[in-house]
Amino acid sequence: MLSHPAALARGTLRSATAVEPRHNRENVPENPATTERASARRGVGHPAPAVGLLPPPTQPPTTRPSLTSCSLLGNALSLPPLDLHFMSHIPPGYPAKPATILDVAAAAGVSRQTVTRAMNGMPGIKESTRQRVRELAQELGYTPSRFAKGLVQGAKTSVGLAIPDLTNPYFPAFASSVVELATLRGWHVVVDDYGHGGRSGLDAVEHLAPQVDAVIGYLGGYAKQAQAVLGRRPLIVLDEAEVGAAGSINFDYQHAAMLAVDHLLETKQRHIAYLEAGSASENGGRAPRTVRGKAVAGRLNERGTSWSLVVADETAEAAKEAAAAFLRDHPETDGILAFNDLMAAGVLKALFAAGRRVPEDCAVIGMDGIPLGELLSPELSTMALDLREVGRAAVELLDGLLSGAVSPGSPSSRLTLKHRLVLRETA
Fold it and tell me: Which sign, positive or negative, has the C-alpha torsion 297, 200, 178, 141?
């Protein structure tokens, strides 16, 4: 007798076409006439389609396969064949093929309607059955697809956008690009600004998961766990080195560091400081911990120049205070590279308060290229990303993953973008 692999693993070997016996179900009143008509339409032994799902196509009467038929799962349940070529593109931990409601029903030995009731918290089934179905669904990686419902009900694709801090001007600029380009595709965007109250990127994905078909976000190191939460729905992470999501967009910080450091050295800066984002108490001032900080440190060391590390929280105010204290102890400093443009703005305030001219006494270069830099006086030189293009890359990559044009974890799902040096008035 054939059985579903998950059923074997759980010791629940049952017929692949077996449905939950009526005497084991809750007593749900049914209209006898309606039941008789429905049975006549679909044939005895075939469960009625669940609400919100496409019914099986009408087929001419054929000889039903026996339970021992080798084509049972392929024909009776219409399951796709195992595609090893597709699986070869998928990183470890990312599911190979979407599980269907029929997979879960076969594994649990219940009807499709019972799976629908269990997954959507509907009445009419035992709590033990509900729990068993949900556990199997999690093992199989099955999640009721809002994308599939959209095909039936005409609903829009819904995309979650996980943002760590909307008070940082970088993220509204990026989010605006994503929303604009997603809207052009008719998608609905749900934003979770999770950088408050100790919440993490994983918390944001868990919050978004029941509402969306996919997620784009800066998750801060939670790609693998967040993809597990979403199952086979696509996750695109940005600025995260670890591979674990369906798609990723990273930035070439070595290239950015080379451009910024080399420019300062070519313009005769010899006492350079790098302002890192983080906790000074945790970092201890020994070495940068961020990817971009390590890239800057690496380039400074390659060029054989002396440099200093300053650490502050990722705010303009904290950067101003840290820079002011550092400049009092190191007045010879003539060049400062900042973790981002927001912190560079704080550095400019500290230099102004100390009576230092920019760039004559001390040059400053930020990173990210947010619009704020052009509003500062003097205007900020920066390692700039085209944030509209970052948003476009994320939306187009997600479009490819949703349509099947891009395979999860394949080389085409891993993008790397580069900064460019924008010289204004501070360097």
Answer: positive
